């Protein structure tokens, strides 16, 4: 590893352990010894597992013995592509991820804008904590709470009843509502940070040139906020793709995650589960590629 | 941008509605914990604290809580070491492949949790042939806790100039002395904040955990398996409220310590590393 210090001290220490001198002379050794453990962990445990996942997706299940055949076959991928049920589940999951992302962008904008450009220092601090706490409050408890709220005897029906309305019965819509709720703070916080970075002078210039607030918003604020929106959307998108517990608790509708979980558990078809788990990876890679073109990584 | 008085009020009301939306489900579950009857209808007919003592004496809850605490402490300790080392290397040195290293650190939270869970499950059961237990949960949790520590420490190191460390070395301090007297005190509160957040993340995690736990029950898994039993719901409600409180307190303290709104969720990179994936 060729290393040059960015800001690291160049001075060799005056005294100390004999090996210390060696470490200070060879910079690569310094970086290498710092990174050995974390990279070893992430490289071996995490990347190694992802490779295993990929290999396992080419295995098959012997239907008669129920044993895993560790060979190479594209059968699982063929099944995913040709089975209409699986194709529908993949499309349903991706469309949900897009819908949740758009919903969260719309819901996040007013509060993020208020936090970034209107609120005073004190209320800004309070609002950040106010958004952070529900983000960290137990995920499972939030889903469980929605399960009770959306039930027939739940609080939402109680509130809607006077208007002659009732909770949606469509599984897709129920999951959409809950996931839009769950991932909203993940959109608000990056968007707030992005809006706060916009220099006042640009907004003033737009006003000086005669643009009304709405025009300034559309022509200046929105394009400058796009990288932040893209950054937040990586999370709303990825979290939606991987969540199988929300659909399980508030609906009977199947999404990618449910198929993976069912196959690794009840159906005991680990190869098919592995192949299905590579679908979100592929979708995320495509998504990250698109988002990079929008400049999300420059905002990162 | 000059925001007019009217627009300001619209934004203020919009923000208030959004906040109310974010807290509403937490308040509802908080009220249900005091519900006297076993049936979950709204509004609760009467309120009592009877289920709190039931939950406290429930051995399943106690065992699961103890497992969660052990997993959280072990995962946090390991992630603290690995995340800090990585943060120091990336904040203080330039080297070939730096971008790839930071991408690798963020990857476990950028990819859906089900991918991490499934990949580790396949590795444990098919390649290593080990039975899933507490330690396999710890391995899984460390993987996504590293980024939380990393984000907090790297943000702190970027704000504190290396010149202090250089001055220490110039004045003849050996590396260990420089670390103990200069680097560590600068990082201390970021380390504590990162550790609290990592613990909260591990304490709450359920998706990756379901793939790596086998028959071991952490507190979220206990909740998940008891949701199917209507008789247990009053106790589940109490446990749920305790879990929320227990996960919010570390986050509140971490937020105070790190003194930087963005680092508490995530980061320099604007990536909110939070629970749920």
Task: Give a brief outline of the structure.
Helices cover 74% and strands 2% of the residues of chain A.
CATH class of chain B: Mainly Alpha
Largest sheet of chain A: 2 strands, antiparallel
Tally of strands of chain A = 3
Annotation, overall tally of beta strands of chain B: 1
Gross CATH architecture of chain B:
Orthogonal Bundle
Task: List unreliable stretches of 5+ residues of chain B.
Answer: 261-277
CATH secondary-structure class of the largest domain in chain A: Mainly Alpha
Description of the molecule:
- The complex is a heterodimer of chains A (300) and B (277).
- Chain A is mainly alpha-helical and 300 residues long.
- Chain A folds into 2 domains: 18-56, no CATH class; 75-299, MetI-like fold, CATH 1.10.3720.
- Helix content of chain A is 74%, strand content 2%.
- Chain A contains 14 helices and 3 strands.
- In chain A, strands 2-3 form a two-stranded antiparallel sheet.
- In chain A, strand 2 (60-61) and strand 3 (68-69) form a beta hairpin.
- Mean pLDDT of chain A is 87; it is low at 1-5.
- Chain B has 277 residues and is mainly α.
- Chain B is globular, with a radius of gyration of 22 Å.
- Helices cover 75% and strands 1% of the residues of chain B.
- The longest helix of chain B is centred in the N-terminal third of the chain and has 34 residues, at 59-92.
- Chain B has one domain (58-265): MetI-like fold (Orthogonal Bundle), CATH 1.10.3720.10.
- The chains are: A mainly alpha (300), B mainly alpha (277).
- At the A-B interface, strand 1, helix 1, helix 2, helix 4 and helix 5 of A face helix 1, helix 3, strand 1, helix 4 and helix 5 of B.
Lay out the secondary structure:
The complex is a heterodimer of chains A (300) and B (277).
Chain A: E1 3-5, H1 18-25, H2 27-56, E2 60-61, E3 68-69, H3 75-82, H4 84-118, H5 121-136, H6 139-149, H7 155-160, H8 171-196, H9 200-208, H10 213-242, H11 245-250, H12 256-264, H13 270-293, H14 296-299
Antiparallel strand pairs in A: 2-3
Helix pairs in contact in A: 1-2, 4-8, 4-10, 5-8, 8-10, 9-10, 10-13, 12-13
Chain B: H1 5-32, H2 50-57, H3 59-92, E1 93-95, H4 98-110, H5 113-127, H6 134-159, H7 163-170, H8 175-204, H9 207-212, H10 219-226, H11 233-258, H12 261-265
Helix pairs in contact in B: 1-11, 2-11, 3-6, 3-8, 3-10, 4-6, 6-8, 7-8, 8-11
